[in-house]
Design a protein that fits this description.
By secondary structure, the chain is α/β, with parallel strands linked by helices. It has two domains: about 140 residues, VC0802-like (2-Layer Sandwich); about 150 residues, Vaccinia Virus protein VP39 (Rossmann fold, 3-Layer(aba) Sandwich), CATH 3.40.50.150. Helices cover about 25% and strands about 30% of the residues. The protein has an eight-stranded mixed beta sheet. It has a seven-stranded mixed beta sheet with strand order 11-10-9-12-13-15-14. Helix 1 packs across helix 4 and helix 4 packs across helix 5. The longest helix has 15 residues. It is elongated. The structure holds S-adenosylmethionine.
């Protein structure tokens, strides 16, 4: 079974590892996942790029060609460069050994040039060849050039909006698939709707504040997105629960946005009406949930600054 590698950003590492695991299992439930520090190796039928495309916290990814005990490269390693015109070598060292990385990258480049007609190109080459050193084993892999997907546009912002990576990670953690529908009952500027549609997922948003409803509508329109937005209290989701597969939302914090009642009351009321058999990822200000004994499959605390730690709860 093909193996892929993912080097993750070390911010929110647990979240990043769980995200790759959830995406891999969503595409292929028999995927096997191994983690070495911020490196995740996935054995799965799914192409590395499909997993990487959905993820929020991947720095570098590609396909593993071989595991190696030492640094012995031969002609077989460079089959992948047969049709390439340009390449670059990159060393990723997460072992405790010290290497002179630029020197190693240069000598690998020289070595490859002897086996292949491809020329070194530092920026945007056809193929990037990776040597990954860990304390357990070393990996030889590559990635092909992929055109960066364009991000959804947002013409209207608001101070309370959630950044797209945390929004996307919540969608991924509950494994909403392309063609399914996600609901955000506190949609604000529409970040969840924009992320979902950019991933081929349908979305429905609710917001009781007319101003936020208008902002979200404009943000969808500029992308020609078709998500539905309803200007109403979140309670409306009970009536439309047959129309979505999961909920991803960021509840009010009590600053910057209008609220119908105190944020802790909103959280309590939301928990009391949360649909039972849906995939759910909610985010709230940590201290609001401290006395609520919220049960879920997993909780992540995300420190932002000294007066804001957010919790993501997955159900
Ligand atoms: C933290 S913001 C959501 C931000 C959103 N994730 C974004 O990126 O723009 C919370 C939103 O909840 C909305 N809200 C407050 N009380 C509500 C209620 N009772 N029903 C529906 N929406 C409500 C606010 O208008 C606000 O837009």
């Amino acid at each position: 079974m093909p193996e892929s590698f993912f080097v993750l950003s070390k911010d929110n590492l647990e979240l990043a590892i769980d995200e790759i695991t959830a995406i891999s299992k969503m595409y292929d439930k028999f995927s096997k996942i191994k983690t070495i520090s911020n490196l995740v190796i996935v054995q799965s039928k799914t192409n590395w790029n499909d997993i990487s495309n959905r993820a929020s916290f991947v720095k570098v990814s590609g396909q593993v060609l071989r595991k190696m005990s030492g640094l012995f490269l031969d002609e077989d390693h460079f089959e992948i460069l047969k049709k390439a015109e340009t390449f670059v070598c990159r060393i990723i060292n997460i072992s405790s050994n010290q290497f002179n990385i630029p020197e190693l990258e240069n000598s690998m480049g020289d070595m490859i040039s002897k086996f292949s007609h491809a020329k070194v190109k530092l920026e945007n080459p056809d193929i990037t060849v990776y040597l990954i050193f860990t304390n357990e084993e070393n990996f030889f892999g590559f990635s092909k050039r992929v055109n960066e997907k364009s991000r959804p546009k947002k013409i209207k912002n608001y101070p309370h909006e959630l950044d797209w990576k945390l929004t996307r990670v919540m969608i991924n953690l509950i494994g909403i698939k392309q063609g399914e529908t996600v609901c955000d009952p506190f949609c604000g500027t529409g970040t969840t709707l924009l992320e979902a549609e950019s991933m081929g997922i349908n979305a429905i948003g609710l917001d009781f504040d007319k101003k936020m409803y208008e902002i979200a509508k404009e943000n969808l329109k500029v992308n020609s997105y078709k998500s539905k937005i309803i200007n109403s209290d979140f309670q409306e989701l009970v009536k439309i629960s047959g129309k979505f597969d999961g909920i991803v939302t960021d509840l009010p914090y009590g600053k910057s946005s209008k609220t119908s009642e105190k944020p802790e009351e909103i959280l309590k009321r939301f928990i009391s009406i949360m649909p039972k058999r849906k995939k759910i990822a909610i985010m709230y200000k940590k201290e609001l949930g401290d006395n609520l004994k919220l049960k879920g499959l997993k909780k992540y605390d995300i420190y932002r600054h000294k007066s804001l730690t957010r919790t993501i709860l997955i159900k």
